[in-house]
Each structure stands twice: as structure tokens, then as C-alpha cells.
Design a protein that fits this description.
Elements (H helix, E strand, L loop, with lengths): L1 H43 L2 E2 L3 E3 L2 H4 L5 H6 L8 H10 L2 E2 L5 E9 L10 E2 L2 H6 L10 H15 L8 E19 L5 E4 L6 E2 L2 H6 L11 H15 L4 E20 L4 E3 L3 E11 L9 E4 L3 E4 L2 H4 L3 H4 L4 E2 L10 H15 L7 E9 L3 E11 L2 E4 L4
Parallel strand pairs: 1-3, 2-4, 5-6, 8-9, 13-15, 14-15
Antiparallel strand pairs: 4-11, 6-7, 6-9, 9-10, 11-12, 15-16, 16-17
Length: 379
């Protein structure tokens, strides 16, 4: 009887163990089904990325950065490299290493190069149809000066900037007059602590009829005398001037075909790449290459006799740089240091031409740290 019971238990155990492989298979099928479901859910709300795309207002609203979402643009305080990928991750899928050219708005206040500004001459005002050496309308001035620069200023580089200086005539403008302790006066920029010129002051300075100074020179002279007579100097006043001739500076950007006013918010195009996780698609993401892209030009190759003739690097054995990778890097970085403004700790992805028996072009990733260049590798 005991023997029969032992055999029965053994048989049941064998059957139970024999079922385990089937259970493993079922578990594996369930895991694959779950993964497929997860993939389907992930792709449901995303479209296949196009070759190029321009962000919309709704796209900026997807950003976790309040500034990007509110102002519909990126800036130096909210960089695209930090906040653009998260927007794309919510909208697009793609193949591994697929690229997409994304255009977005970037805020950067134009920098006015006052010391080297192109100053509009009397003859140029006349050429632009002005009866006096000034403009009275900013929009008209910016448009006509842009056309003037198209005719007179040549640039062979898209993205080049130029500051233009012109005189703007306007009426009834608040000006800020600083009276120094010694009784001298000068015009200054906006001062939130300036004392507003009152009706009483206009009266005492002889400008009570219209409650304004006729010209800036009148304001400088009258307020200086008033401050000295009343013992209020040093002090800054905010007063209204009737006739104003304001030195105005505008930054122009060369588009490649014409000069246009550089706005605070300008469109920027950048290529991003997709990293596809085959095992878990939910971990796939878009990423922005941190490198500045540079394609070497004839001016760069001309710096070295070995590359100047054909505008490439000869990589054949016995040539310069030949098979010497360090020599190639030395030549390329020499070009970068000579012809470009280089920022340390910034990667550069340089496209260069080569000849190794046949002509081609490829890239090399470089970075400069503590004055020394090195190649950036995956290792």
C-alpha cells in the first residue's frame, strides 16, 4: 500500500513539473503581449517624425519650463538643449538615429555695436527721400535703411550683423537730465528715482505756458540753473521736451540675400536625433547634439600648403597628414583657432573633405579644454 501511495505521489509530481514549461511559455507570451500593448499605447499619441518641423504655440505649452510655455520661445535662461527634446518626446517617434530639422523661436536681445555703427549720412537721408537729415517714423526708417544696406554693404556670410545709426525726430518725449554738484548738466538714461518736473518748476524756468522744454539744450540749461538756485544739486530730473532728435541704433542681420532688422525673437533651425530603445520603446527619446557644426571652407584649407591646392586632406600614406590622426587634428584645430571664435569646453563637429584614393567628406568631433584640443570619442 505504501508503495502504491509513493508511486501515485511521484506520478503527480512528475505531471506537475511537466506543466511548468508550458507555464513558462505562457508567461513569455504574456510578457510579449504586454510589451506590444505598451508599445501600441506609446505610439498611439505620437506620429512618425517628418524630415523638418516648426514648433507651434501648442508645442511650447508642452514644456515643463514656465518661461518657454508662457513666452513661446527659448532663451539663454531656458536653453533648447534642455527643453526642446521633452516637447518632441511627447509628439514624435522615429527610427533609431533618425534626424529631424526643428525650427523654434529663440529670444536674444540684439547687441548694439555702437562704436562701429554704420552712420547714415546727409546724402543718404536725401537718397532715401527724406527732406531733412532724420526720420520721423521708426518703421519707415528701419525699412529704408535695410534697403540702403542692401545696395551699399556687401556680406558673403549669412548671419553677419551690423548696427546702423540714424536720427529719429519725435515730439513730447520724456528726457532725463542730471544736474551735478558743480552745476553742470548732462542727459542720462532712464532713472526710476528721477524727480518729475512739476508745473511749478516749468513756471520758474520760464516754460510754464506749454509745460515743456522746447529742446534738450533748453532743458539742460534751465534745469541746471534751477537746481543751483534752489540748492537741489546733485539731482536728476524727468522732464518733457517738445523737439527731440534722438540718436537711434538698429541691429541688422544678413539673411544671405538681404539685410533685415534683427528681432529679439528669431527663428533658429537645429537638427535633433532619435534614440530608439528596441527593448523598451517608452525609453526612446530625442536628443540635441551639443556640438557646434562647422564645415571647413576654402579659406580654411588655404592655411596649409598640403590642403590648399585641392581643398581637402590627403589621407594616403606618405602624404600630409596621411595616416597620422594627430597631424590631421593639429591641422583642423589650427584652422579653427585662426578663422573662428572658439569657446573652451564646447564641442565642435567639423565636416572636412578628404582624399584617400577617392574623394569624400566626413566629420570629426573636437573639444578645447585649458588651451588644448582633443578628439571626442565614445570611449
Amino acid at each position: 500500500m505504501k508503495k502504491i501511495l509513493f508511486i501515485a505521489i511521484f506520478a503527480i509530481g512528475f505531471i506537475f513539473n511537466a506543466c511548468n514549461p508550458m507555464q513558462d511559455i505562457n508567461n513569455e507570451i504574456d510578457k510579449k503581449q504586454d510589451a506590444e500593448n505598451e508599445k501600441a499605447v506609446f505610439l498611439k499619441d505620437r506620429v512618425v517624425a517628418p524630415a523638418a518641423y516648426t514648433l507651434t504655440d501648442d508645442d511650447y505649452a508642452l514644456s515643463s519650463n514656465e518661461s518657454v510655455s508662457k513666452y513661446k520661445s527659448f532663451s539663454k535662461y531656458a536653453l533648447p538643449k534642455d527643453y526642446l527634446p521633452e516637447i518632441l518626446n511627447q509628439k514624435f517617434s522615429g527610427e533609431d538615429a533618425q534626424s529631424m530639422l526643428v525650427t523654434y523661436d529663440f529670444y536674444s536681445k540684439p547687441v548694439k555695436d555702437i562704436d562701429h555703427a554704420y552712420e547714415i549720412s546727409d546724402d543718404e537721408y536725401a537718397e532715401m527721400g527724406q527732406g531733412h537729415s532724420n526720420f520721423s517714423n521708426e518703421d519707415e526708417a528701419e525699412s529704408l535703411i535695410g534697403k540702403l544696406l542692401d545696395r551699399k554693404v556687401y556680406s558673403d556670410e549669412a548671419g553677419a550683423e551690423m548696427t546702423a545709426k540714424y536720427t529719429l525726430f519725435t515730439k513730447y518725449k520724456t528726457r532725463y537730465i542730471k544736474v551735478n554738484a558743480d552745476g553742470t548738466s548732462e542727459e542720462v538714461g532712464y532713472d526710476k528715482n528721477a524727480v518729475k518736473v512739476t508745473d511749478e518748476i516749468y513756471e520758474e524756468t520760464g516754460n510754464g505756458k506749454y509745460k515743456t522744454f522746447y529742446t534738450i539744450n533748453d532743458a539742460l540749461e534751465d534745469l541746471a540753473k534751477y537746481a543751483v538756485d534752489n540748492g537741489t544739486a546733485p539731482i536728476t530730473y524727468a522732464g518733457t521736451v517738445y523737439k527731440n532728435y534722438i540718436d537711434t541704433y538698429v541691429v541688422y542681420l544678413f539673411s544671405g540675400t538681404n539685410w533685415m532688422v534683427k528681432q529679439s525673437v528669431m527663428p533658429v533651425s537645429e537638427e535633433l536625433n532619435y534614440s530608439l530603445d528596441e527593448e523598451d520603446i517608452t525609453k526612446s527619446y530625442w536628443w540635441a547634439d551639443p556640438a557646434i557644426k562647422i564645415t571647413l571652407t576654402a579659406a580654411d584649407y588655404a592655411l596649409y600648403p598640403a590642403s590648399s591646392k585641392y581643398g581637402n586632406f590627403d589621407l594616403r600614406s606618405g602624404k600630409t597628414p596621411g595616416t597620422d590622426r594627430d597631424k590631421l587634428i593639429e591641422m583642423i584645430t589650427g584652422m579653427l583657432d585662426t578663422n573662428y571664435t572658439i569657446v573652451e569646453d564646447q564641442q565642435y563637429l567639423v565636416t572636412y573633405n578628404y582624399y584617400d584614393g577617392s574623394s569624400g567628406a566626413t566629420t570629426i568631433r573636437l573639444i578645447k579644454k585649458a588651451g588644448t584640443w582633443s578628439e571626442v570619442t565614445d570611449e
